[in-house]
C-alpha cells in the first residue's frame, strides 16, 4: 500500500487474495482502490467525465469534460467489455485528477491514461445554424399549415403553444444539456446515465437508417422537379405531354373551362404519372420496376451528403451557412409574392380563422403535441451529437430557447407562404379554399404549390428557387440525422472507426442508398407513406419517453441539475424540473397511447392500403424499439449472479426513488444500501463495471 498526503491507494490482486470490505470501505474488484479521508466516491467513466469534489469542481470540471480516454484493450482478469468504470477519490491536484492507473492481472502495472481533445465547432454560429437547419425541415413547410387549418385555424395555436412550453422545449433543452455535459453520442452516453438503457442508442440508429431510406427519396423528387424547371415553359402547365390523360384540365389557360370532380390538373399528372409513375404499380404487393431517373437523382443527393459530412462538424458546420440560411431568403421572397396575388386574403383568413369548438376535441391536442415534438426533433440522437461538440461551458440554455423559438416561428410563417397561394388558386378555380387545400404531405408542395407557381409571372424563376429551397431544407436534416449515427458509432467503437471516419461514412451512405431502392420503384410513394407513418412516429416517441424516464428517475433529476450547475453556473428552476420529472413524460405517453388506440387509416391517391400493411407497419416500428428490451436482457444475462441478486439491484433503485420524497439519512435506507453493495463486492459476483454503477447509484441517491 502506498500512502500520499491526500489519499491512500491499495492495489487489489484477486487471484492471490480475497479482500473483504467492511462497512465504510470502498472496494473495486481487480482494479485500484482509492479511499479518501472524507469517504467521498468519485467516478471516472470512459475518462470523459469526472465528478470532482466540491473543492475541485471548478478546476477539474473544466479539464476532464474536454477529453476522452484511450483505455487498454486488455480486460482486467478477463472481466470487462470496453465499458470499465473506475472509482477514484478527488485528487489533491488537477494533475492527479486527470491521470489514473489500473491493475490488470496478478502484478500491478500502472497505465497512464492518454487524454485526447474532442473536436468542437469552429464557431458558435456553426452549431446554431446546424441545429436550426435540422429542426426546420420539409415538415415545417407542409405539415404545420395543414395541421393548423385542419384543427381550428388560429385556435390551434393555443394547444400548440401549450405543448411547446410544457413538452417540446423542455425535452429539446434536456437533450442539448445531456450531450454537452457528457460529450458522447446516443449509444455511449448511456454508460454515464443508466447503462441498462443503452439499447435506446441502438434504437435511434435503426430509426435514423429508416428515415434516411425514405426521406432522401422525397428530396430526389424535388431534384427531379428542379432539373425539369430549367425550361421556358414548365412541363406541368400543359396537357399535351405523353403522360397526360383525357381528364387533364388546364383551367389557367382557358377561363371557359369548368372544373369538375373528374378533372385532374396537369401538375397532378406530372407528379403522379411522370415523376412517380404510380400508374405502373398496383400497390405495395406489386411495386413494379425502379425508376432510373429517380435513382440518378438520389445518387447525386447522397454524393452531396457524403462530401458535406465526411470530415465531421468542421466541414458540415460551414455547409449549413448556405443550406440553413437560403430557405429563409426564399421563404421571404415567396411570402411577398404570395401576398400580392389575387385572392391571397382568402387563404390567410382560412388559415387563421379560429374555430373555438375544435379545442374541445382530444385529437386537436394530440396533433398539437405530435407536431411540436416532430418539429423540434428530440429523440433522434442529433441534438446529443451536435451538443457533444460544444465547449463545456457553452450556454445551451440560451441555445435551446433561441433555436426552438426560431423553429416554431418558421412553421407559423410558412403557413402564410402556403395559404396565400392556396387562396390564389381558389380564386382562379372559383372554389372554396377548403376544396383546394385537400392535398396533404408532399402532395401539397409537389402538386398544389407547384401548380400555383407555374401560373405566376416569371414562373421558371420561382419554380427554381422554390425547389432549391426544398432541397436545402432536406439536406440540413439529412446531414444532422446521419451525423447522429456517425457520432454514436465513433464514440462507441473508437478503436475501430476512430481514425477511419471517411470509410465509415462511405459505408453508411452506401447502406442508406441500398435501403432506399424500394422507394425508387414505381410504387415507391406507397412505401414512403408507410415508413413515414409507422417507422418513425411511435418508435421515436417511445425512445424519448424512456429517455426522459431514465434521466429524471434513474439518473436522478437532482444529479442532472447539479451537472447543469457545474456546466452552466446555475441550477434549472422548478418549472424545468417539473417538466422533466412529470409533465414531459405524461405528454409523450399521451401521444403514444393516442396513436396506439387509433392507428392511421392510410390512403394515397386512389390507393387504399390493405389491412396487412398495418401489421407490416407495426413490425417495422417494433424492429427498432425491440433493441431496448433485447439489450436489457443481454445486460442481465452477461452479468454474473442469481435472479435474487439481480432483483436486489431494482430494490436499490427503489430506495433511491424513495429518497426523492423521504430523508435519505434514515438508518434503514443506508443500511440496505450497504448490505447490497457489500454482498456484491465481497463475493465478487459482479464485474468491475457493474459494481461501479451500483456505487454511483448509492452515491447519487445518498446526496439527493
From TrEMBL:
* Residue ranges that the Swiss-Prot or TrEMBL entry lists as coiled coil: none
* All residue ranges annotated as the Sodium:neurotransmitter symporter serotonin N-terminal domain in the record: 49-73
Membrane-topology annotation of the record: Multi-pass membrane protein
Indicate yes or no for the key word Lipid biosynthesis. no
The protein's UniProt keywords, in alphabetical order, are:
Antiport, Cell junction, Cell membrane, Cell projection, Disulfide bond, Endosome, Glycoprotein, Membrane, Metal-binding, Neurotransmitter transport, Phosphoprotein, Sodium, Synapse, Transmembrane, Transmembrane helix, Transport
Give the UniProt record's GO annotations in the biological process aspect.
amino acid transport; brain morphogenesis; enteric nervous system development; negative regulation of organ growth; platelet aggregation; positive regulation of cell cycle; positive regulation of gene expression; regulation of thalamus size
The record lists the catalysed reaction(s) as: serotonin(out) + K(+)(in) + Na(+)(out) + H(+)(in) = serotonin(in) + K(+)(out) + Na(+)(in) + H(+)(out)
Task: Tell me the InterPro entries matching this sequence.
Answer: Na/ntran_symport, Na/ntran_symport_serotonin_N, SNS_sf
Any Pfam family the entry gives: 5HT_transport_N
The primary location reported for this protein is other
Please tell me where Na(+) binds in this chain: 133, 135-136, 140, 375, 407, 473, 476-477
GO MF assignments: antiporter activity; integrin binding; neurotransmitter transmembrane transporter activity; nitric-oxide synthase binding; serotonin binding; serotonin:sodium:chloride symporter activity; sodium ion binding
Alphabetical list of CDD domains matching this protein:
SLC6sbd_SERT (cd11513)
Q: Which cysteines are joined by disulfide bonds?
A: 239-248
Query: Superkingdom of this entry's organism?
Result: Eukaryota
Subcellular location(s): the record lists: Cell junction, Focal adhesion; Cell membrane; Cell projection, Neuron projection; Endosome membrane
Residue ranges crossing the lipid bilayer per the database entry: 127-145, 157-178, 199-227, 290-307, 319-345, 365-389, 401-426, 446-471, 503-528, 534-557, 578-597, 609-634
Q: Name one GO cellular component term.
A: presynapse
Say which family it is in: Belongs to the sodium:neurotransmitter symporter (SNF) (TC 2.A.22) family. SLC6A4 subfamily.
Name of this protein: Transporter
Tell me the lineage of the source organism: Eukaryota, Metazoa, Chordata, Craniata, Vertebrata
